Amino acid sequence: MRPMFLRLLKPGYRAWVMIWIISIFVLWEGLAWMLHLFMSPQQATSRLPYLHVVMDSFYRHWNTLAEQSSVTFGNAAIGFAGGTLLGALLALLMSAAVWIERTLSPYVVSSQMVPVIGLAPIVYGIIHNAEWARIVMAAYVTFFPVIIHTLKGLKSASPQHLELMRAYGTSWRARYVKCLLPSALPGLFSGMKIAAPLAVTSSIVVELMGAPDGLGVLMVSSLYYGSAQAGMFWATIMLSMGIGLISYLFISLAEHWLTPWQPEFRPKGGE
């Protein structure tokens, strides 16, 4: 079965997308209306504003939202790329020998014991630069899932194929290029799909610590004004969710193009 996001690109599924969007709109508006029935307008708006109010905030403040989201996404993307590269290289190194994996594994696992919400102010306090702090935190949450899934993919390579290549005297470089790396690509993309939304979230967490710009700053400032800026607050939340979703879909499309041999990407009869 093909991934759902690829199916949604087909005309036959566009009606379902519209139904899904309309259902969310109706449910959101209905819940907001019920809150306004039992609470004061200020209390109800601070908890869940009408969706049309949020959309209006999108329209009126789009330039600011676009500018600040580009800052957040740009730093998250750089950190994500660096964390992916670091994770892939460490996975390749750990796959070279069992003793290397056993030596590095405790350090790799222990590096994730500190929660992001606790590590972000420490990193920001040491670096004293919001841009680099966002990059470092995005790389931090990226490299671990990339290592785990890439290493799993490297280990999934067919032992028979590797033994046959050794029997023919194939070099270690050829074994990696012809067998190990293709086996590792699905795992690499799985780790990247997990890490991409996390990289955006970690950048926003840094911004909540006092950065001068970014979506996190808009969230804090919107909360400061309470119900008067509730629409703006929810707009930043929805925009950050959208950035994470787009990142996930982009990586999924790249996986479909670069690893077409996977069973879920093979065309089925009638599709």
Automatic annotation (TrEMBL):
Gene3D superfamilies: MetI-like (1.10.3720.10)
One protein family per Pfam: BPD_transp_1
PROSITE patterns: ABC_TM1
UniProt-listed GO biological process terms: transmembrane transport
Coiled coil: none
InterPro entries cross-referenced by the UniProt entry: MetI-like, MetI-like_sf
Domain ABC transmembrane type-1: 69-251
Topological type in the membrane: Multi-pass membrane protein
Signal peptide coordinates: none
Keyword Amino-acid biosynthesis: no
Compartments where located: Cell membrane
Transmembrane region(s): 12-35, 77-100, 107-126, 132-151, 194-211, 231-251
Keywords on record: Cell membrane, Membrane, Transmembrane, Transmembrane helix, Transport
CDD domains: TM_PBP2
Keyword Cell membrane: yes
Family: Belongs to the binding-protein-dependent transport system permease family.
Name of this chain's protein: NitT/TauT family transport system permease protein
Highest classification ranks of the organism: Bacteria, Bacillati, Bacillota, Bacilli, Bacillales
